[in-house]
């Protein structure tokens, strides 16, 4: 047997087989390398320079944190919001690269000394003595999750941008003549004759004949037809539904409480008043004066006369005070007593505690349900995303929604409803979504094409898939069933047309040479003389808001007709009162400054757009999904 195998190995067929096996293992071993050839994993490229995914993801994370802080934590970004933030930050990074490349091309540099001086001049980094505070600066970096080199790099880029934009914006100026014209335009006042013809005050029209009623009914199907109904099947899944199936043990709750103990312990807070000076002797004198006259307003005035500044800090914990010696002294001080002078890097402080909020602690019994819900919610969210992938696979395999709902314990409903969520019987359709997300879910269902593939959608409702089984087109309701509505609509239309004709007659008379006042008097209609009034509505302006814009578009003695929601209006311009700009140099200067600012902003935007258009900018949509936090296909 061994001899036979040796003979076979010496044949050409065996050698070819061995070569094929070697090649297949080689290709298999470098498959990932081969697949990566020609594949770009950068989010964007600007003239060949890559913006990598980690950089964009970090920028998106910081932006979401900033929005959350601005909204005081009341912010839950959905997929659409994450996508919008991702697009915004990537566009910002692209613009940064474009400007960096232009700065390099122009030889714009920012020395280290310029960056340092700029940081020292930022008011937010200055302490009570008006000088740069390293403690405040470090606190800012920690709160914004930045390293010092990263922050200084951002400043360097921004300073370079300021140099370029400053040069571009420097020439923007609004001439004095233009400033005068703009101010004169805004302060111009006008007088008019106004005739308003409400539909409700039109002469009573004749009752319609049967033929007129039938024709009106047929010519206005949108008013007298049933809405479009859709027969839809809906499945939904959200963390709240899954939480009920999640079991949380008492041990897990206790561990979570121990891990988050700081969250349930509120430290003592104190409201502190202080005065700071540079000399100890002056501090002692101020402390004695403060003890003699405890009223803080009186003491502030006395301190100001001595060249010192007294201020009151907001309620703060000891850990929040930037200097340990001050924190120790303030939290050892009895309320409503004046401290001895305390030295810090900023000078000598004298303190007084005016309010103490004692520490508090929420025991486990108080927060047990809260922790249980948090743990269950975290697990439910993980389960939801894992299950969402399997549901997507089932949908791709054309599995019915009812079967998917049963398989994965989802909420399911099949309903017939219109775009307002009403059934043909006039009752609200029972959709398996929370009331707060109901309108959004209905909009999503009616935005879906009837024959579109069923996909799992993420939104306020959690995850939802909807299948349109049938579309019931609108149909004209028989006249006999809506006779009262048709008669009411016919009469309302007749009144509107009557006032339309009266307004058109007045318009024709004025264009024929009469004044609006004379034409209205001849027709037995009341006309009002209004003005002079300005462009801005409210504040005693007698002209209705909706008529101001048409009025200020009229030429001298011009006339126009305007349809309002419940009336027709005819307006004739009777006078223009130019603005008196005598002694208005300061308002003119303000208008010129505002105009110059807007011109500079526009020039800068055009400059940046031109640089971006000149650069070879390429966005990678596949990687944009990763930045937005969506899974890649």
Short note summarizing the structure:
Helices cover 52% and strands 17% of the residues.
Describe this protein's structure.
The chain has 633 residues and is an alpha+beta fold. Helices cover 52% and strands 17% of the residues. It contains 24 helices and 17 strands. The strands form 5 sheets. The protein has a 4-stranded antiparallel beta sheet, sandwiched between helices. β8 and β9 form a beta hairpin. α4 packs across α5. The longest helix is centred in the middle third of the chain and has 33 residues. The chain is extended. 18% of the residues are buried. The N terminus is likely disordered.
Number of strands: 17
Q: Strand content of the residues, in percent?
A: 15-25%
Largest beta sheet: strand ordering? 14-3-16-15
Proportion of helical residues: 40-55%
Mean pLDDT: 84
Radius of gyration: 38 Å
Low-confidence regions: 1-6, 25-38
Q: Tell the overall outline.
A: extended
Distance between the termini: 52 Å
Give a quick account of the main beta sheet: strands, pairing sense, barrel closure.
Answer: 4 strands, antiparallel
Helix count from the secondary structure assignment: 24
Instruction: Find the structural class using helix and strand composition.
Output: alpha+beta
């Amino acid at each position: 047997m061994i001899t036979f195998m040796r003979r076979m190995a010496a044949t050409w067929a065996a050698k070819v087989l061995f070569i094929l096996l070697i090649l297949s293992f080689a290709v298999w071993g470098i498959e990932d390398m081969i697949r990566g050839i020609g594949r770009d994993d950068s989010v964007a490229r600007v003239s060949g320079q890559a913006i990598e995914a980690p950089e964009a993801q970090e920028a998106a994370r910081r932006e979401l944190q900033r929005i959350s802080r601005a909204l005081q934590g009341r912010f839950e970004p959905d997929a659409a919001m994450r996508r919008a933030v991702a697009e915004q930050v990537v566009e910002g990074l692209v613009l940064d690269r474009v400007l960096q490349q232009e700065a390099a091309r122009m030889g714009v540099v920012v020395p280290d000394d310029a960056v340092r001086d700029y940081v020292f001049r930022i008011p937010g980094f200055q302490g009570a003595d008006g000088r740069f505070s390293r403690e405040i600066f470090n606190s800012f970096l920690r709160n914004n999750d930045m390293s010092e080199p990263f922050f200084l790099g951002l400043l360097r880029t921004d300073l370079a941008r300021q140099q370029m934009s400053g040069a571009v914006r420097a020439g923007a100026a609004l001439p004095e003549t233009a400033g005068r014209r703009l101010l004169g335009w805004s302060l111009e006042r006008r007088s008019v004759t106004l005739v308003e013809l409400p539909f409700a005050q039109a002469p009573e029209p004749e009752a319609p004949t049967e033929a007129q009623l039938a024709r009106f009914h047929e010519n206005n199907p949108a008013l007298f037809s049933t809405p479009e109904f859709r027969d839809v099947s809906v499945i939904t899944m959200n963390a709240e539904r899954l939480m009920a199936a999640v079991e949380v043990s008492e041990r897990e709750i206790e561990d979570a409480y121990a891990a988050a103990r700081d969250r349930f312990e509120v430290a003592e807070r104190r409201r502190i008043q202080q005065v700071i000076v540079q000399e100890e002797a002056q501090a002692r004198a101020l402390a004695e004066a403060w003890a003699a006259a405890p009223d803080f307003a009186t003491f502030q005035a006395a301190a100001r006369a001595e060249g010192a500044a007294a201020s009151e800090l907001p309620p703060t914990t000891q850990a929040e005070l930037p200097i340990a010696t001050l924190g120790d002294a303030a939290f050892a001080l009895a309320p409503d007593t004046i401290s001895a002078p305390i030295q810090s890097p900023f000078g000598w402080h004298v303190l007084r505690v005016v309010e103490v909020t004692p520490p508090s602690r929420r025991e486990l019994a108080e927060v047990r349900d809260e922790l249980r819900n948090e743990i269950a919610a975290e697990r439910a969210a993980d389960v939801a995303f894992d299950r969402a992938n399997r549901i997507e696979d089932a949908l791709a395999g054309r599995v019915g929604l009812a079967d998917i709902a049963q398989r994965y314990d989802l909420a399911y409903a099949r309903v017939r409803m219109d775009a307002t969520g009403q059934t043909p019987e006039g009752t609200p359709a029972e959709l398996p979504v929370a009331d707060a997300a109901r309108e959004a879910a209905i909009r999503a269902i009616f935005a879906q094409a009837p024959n579109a593939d069923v996909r799992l959608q993420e939104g306020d409702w959690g995850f939802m898939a909807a299948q349109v089984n049938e579309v019931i087109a609108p149909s004209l309701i028989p006249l006999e069933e809506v006779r009262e509505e048709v008669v009411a609509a016919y009469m309302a239309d007749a009144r509107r047309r009557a006032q339309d004709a009266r307004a058109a007659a007045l318009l024709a008379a004025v264009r024929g040479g009469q004044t609006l006042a004379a034409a209205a008097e001849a027709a037995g209609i009341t006309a009002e003389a209004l003005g002079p009034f300005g462009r801005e509505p409210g504040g005693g302006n007698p002209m209705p808001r909706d008529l101001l814009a048409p009025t200020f578009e009229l030429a001298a003695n011009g006339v126009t007709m305007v349809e309002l929601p419940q009336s027709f209006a005819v307006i004739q311009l009777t006078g223009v009162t130019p603005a008196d700009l005598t002694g208005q140099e300061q308002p003119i200067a303000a208008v010129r400054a505002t105009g110059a600012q807007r011109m500079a902003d526009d020039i800068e935007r055009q400059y940046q757009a031109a640089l971006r258009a000149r650069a070879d900018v390429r966005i990678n949509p596949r990687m944009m999904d990763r930045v937005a936090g969506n899974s890649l296909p």
